[in-house]
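Researcher: We're teaching a course module on how sequence relates to structure. For the next exercise, students receive a sequence and then see the predicted structure as tokens, so they can try to spot secondary structure elements on their own. Here is the exercise chain.
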Amino acid sequence: MRITDFDLVSRPPTDSTIKNTEEDGPPLSQMTQESTATPPVDVGKKRMTINTMSSNLKKMQYAVRGEVVIVFDHIIYTNIGNPQSVGQKPLTWPRQVLALVDLPEEVGVNHPQATKMFPADAIRRAKEIKSKMGGGTGAYSHSKGVRLFREDVAAFIEERDGGVPSEPEDIFLTNGASAGIGMIMQAIVSDENCGVMIPIPQYPIYSATIDLLGGKKVGYYLDEKSNWDLNLKELERSITEARAEGINVNSFVLINPGNPTGQVLSKTAVKDIVQFCAKHKLVLLADEVYQENIYDDDMEFMSCKRAAYETGLLERDEIELVSFHSTSKGLFGECGRRGGYMELVGFDAEVKDQIYKLASSFLCSTLSGQVMTSLMVRGPKPGDESYESHEAEMKSVYESLKRRSKIVSEGLNAIPGFSCQPAQGAMYCFPSVEMPPGALTAAKEKGTTPDTLFAVSLLEKTGICVVPASGFGQEKGRFGFRTTFLPSEEELKRVVGDVKSHYESFCQEYA
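Model: And here is the predicted structure for the students to work with:
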């Protein structure tokens, strides 16, 4: 996979429509032998080749697992938000409950020595879960997810949003946020002229999925000089230009806190966005998987749902909103469990039925992920045996992330030739890097981008893996990369020092 510059508006070839009704021709039984003959296959060739497979799949780019990642082994992974792969320890209580849920009852919750191995609240929760699951974690669940878990999610959302109602029937438990995003995108991108507004920079799942489905990317730029803030003038510019080109812009993606940019939007900005979407009748996809990862003491997370409520849009039924959350981020970091949810708000009932049908085609999300999602949104309560230890573990993870965010953002920003905005939230920094003239020439000769040239060089010389900024989209003439701040604090200090040293050598090599 090659990492290329971000294609703002894609124009994939039109696929021919496949028809399969008898109106289009005689029944199969009446077809001639000539018409049903199998086309000859060249000896020695595969039925599916790089030339015959899906052109949209070949076009799709997914930068965080792209060229820079797949060429090398034994690297320092700062390229992807995968906390436990770089040393974050799992939280104890959720793993205890999950273990008890997985185990047969006679060797788990009902074992005579269970209370000596597990805290009482973990046993109680596991029994509650097992009583509502039916066949346990080895059986399929309802396609939306176990009802108990959806009730837990709805209660979490209500508490988070100050009492704004949430219905379990509007909750879909998904394989991480990614599966939910994919389902909604499949529903939204109805033809090749559908446009989805996405931030630039953006997380590549959006651009990749739009390409795969044959839609059009409609970019709106975040303002790097204002710590990646956005403004209504830029949103209006983007949608006006796209519609002038004949693109049917029908949806809007918001990532808050930001990935790859790490900003946290103000309450005013979030309210502006929901009103913009209502004004232009855009389905709003709210990627809120980092809502617990807020490190700036002056910032506070506001959900799009609460913003829609406070602006009266929910009451007037003037917005269609789907929000996503995940066990992979936050303080759990349980990426491999593939747990997450999406909540549909303001959708037409028939559309919701179609999305449910789509979810049913996948049977259900993983049961361990469903359990972990329930445990994320409903942890031990004050007075429970594990409450204090669980809170202490989460606080430790949070405080360390907060320190690491400063180590990386401040460290990179101090490098001459670098500019890095503070990481107010999420797990990433997205510095801008001045490229020496020779790097621009060398990249052009190699058919790559200057920041890919730098990222590959950094990996070869230091073992540090970052993702070129070109994979996320950026303004023309800007170069840089995305890095996580998930490795240990000591290792990140070394990473910053190695990046500085390598950049100095890189500039000398390509002066």
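Model: If you want an answer key for the exercise: The longest strand covers residues 248-255. The CA atoms of residues 411 and 497 lie 8 Å apart.
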